[in-house]
Design goal:
Number of helices: 9
CATH class: Alpha Beta
CATH superfamily: P-loop containing nucleotide triphosphate hydrolases
Distance between the termini: 37 Å
Shape: globular
Order of helices and strands: EEEHEEHEHHHEHEHEEHH
Strand order of the largest sheet: 6-7-8-3-9-10
Structural class: alpha/beta
Mean pLDDT: 86
Strand content: 15-25%
Low-confidence stretches: 249-273
CATH architecture: 3-Layer(aba) Sandwich
Helix content: 25-40%
Number of strands: 10
Number of domains: 1
Radius of gyration: 21 Å
């Protein structure tokens, strides 16, 4: 399958009052069309920055990002807004629904600036809600009258209403119980069978198990599943050695992963921080 997302040597460096903060360090990633990919990482690892970059909400400091064959860095702000509204769908942990608006109205929101007649917008929202399996009797209810699982289905329907090629989901089951989370993941699997490319940000291994492939991000660097297992095994061995030393030095609280990707900073002209 062709790569719908092709990221190479991506860096993101923020300037703050305290100095420079490096959120991404030479990240390279290819995502095939129709793939369900999970990106896992602890808090502060850079996964949200990576998600914002893939969603064209943030521009990288250096590196290349090609989306469906187009170099994103060459797009204007208007072009990026068009990409976000037509090619990408976003699902958030906190749902981000208007509590007093009806379910149907919430799903219609991405179409508010389109030139489509109101009736066409309603039909598009109706079809999106049916595709995620929400019963029709809920369509005219206010979103704050729904359960957590129902609200997440509405949020997924809203992400689908423009028929995007790619869905970006940030901790989509984080506020849900196990059974409801499984229901939501089955919905994503159904979307994938319909040809959507889905990228999940998660910290939950049970959620990542639904994916075709999992990558891990730590300190702004990306690792394969195999590299992550080797890293964790190294941590465990280090802990065992330290536990066996009565007067030895304490374990390094933030060890460097042994399989870190090659530093591309010199090639990209980005300073090592």
């Amino acid at each position: 399958m062709s790569a719908v997302i092709d990221v190479r040597g991506l860096w993101r460096i923020y300037e703050t009052a305290a100095g420079h903060t490096t959120a991404l360090r030479g990240v390279s990633l290819q995502v095939a069309r129709g793939e369900l990919l999970a990106i896992m990482g602890p808090s502060g690892s850079g996964k949200s920055t990576l998600m914002n970059t893939l969603g064209c909400l943030d521009r990288p400091t250096a590196g290349s990002y090609r989306l469906e064959g187009v170099e994103v860095s060459e797009l204007s702000e208007d072009d990026l807004a068009h990409v976000r509204s037509s090619r990408l769908g976003f699902v958030f942990q906190s749902f981000n629904l208007l509590p007093r608006a009806t379910v149907l109205r919430n799903v219609m929101l991405p179409l508010v600036y389109s030139d489509r007649p109101v009736r066409d917008r309603e039909l598009a929202a109706w079809r999106a809600l049916r595709s995620v399996g929400l019963p029709e009797e809920h369509y005219l209810h206010r979103s704050n009258e729904l359960s957590g699982g129902q609200m997440q289905r509405v949020a997924i329907a809203r992400a689908l209403v423009n028929d995007p090629a790619i869905i970006l989901a940030d901790e989509p089951t984080g506020n849900l119980d196990t059974a409801t989370g499984e229901m939501v993941m089955r919905t994503f699997r159904y979307m994938q069978r319909r040809g959507k490319t889905i990228i999940l940000i998660t910290h939950d291994p049970e959620v990542a198990a639904w994916a075709d492939r999992t990558v891990h991000i730590r300190d702004g660097r990306l690792f394969s599943d195999e590299e992550e297992r080797a890293y964790l095994a190294g941590l465990a061995q280090r802990g065992e050695r330290d536990a066996g030393k009565k007067n030895g030095p304490a374990a390094d609280p933030s060890p460097t992963p042994p399989t870190a990707p090659k530093d591309r900073s010199r090639l990209l002209g980005v300073p090592c921080l």
